[in-house]
Design brief:
By secondary structure, the chain is an all-alpha fold. It is about 55% helix and about 0% strand. The longest helix is centred in the first third of the chain and has 29 residues.
Length: about 80
């Protein structure tokens, strides 16, 4: 009996998420079929989870005397 009660909070959270997932998937499918492009506003949707909130508060540290050098992307050993 107790294990069945544990389903309730999961269902309350997961059901709206699944509905949103399927609705946005349907909107994206129709948009791709009509315009050929994925809707940018769906791509930009984010969920401000704990990791993102914590990452926003972490200060950027710059060490004196160290320069960041951009590295070349790795090359795939094809014919030269």
């Amino acid at each position: 009996m107790v294990t069945w009660l544990l389903i309730v909070p999961h269902a309350l959270i997961l059901l709206p998420l699944w509905i949103g997932f399927w609705l946005l998937s349907l909107v994206a499918l129709v948009a791709i079929m009509v315009t050929g492009w994925y809707p940018r506003w769906i791509f930009d949707l984010t969920w401000p989870g704990p990791a993102r909130v914590a990452a926003d508060k972490v200060p950027v540290h710059h060490l004196p005397g160290i320069r960041r050098v951009r590295q070349r992307p790795p090359t795939h050993g094809g014919p030269a």
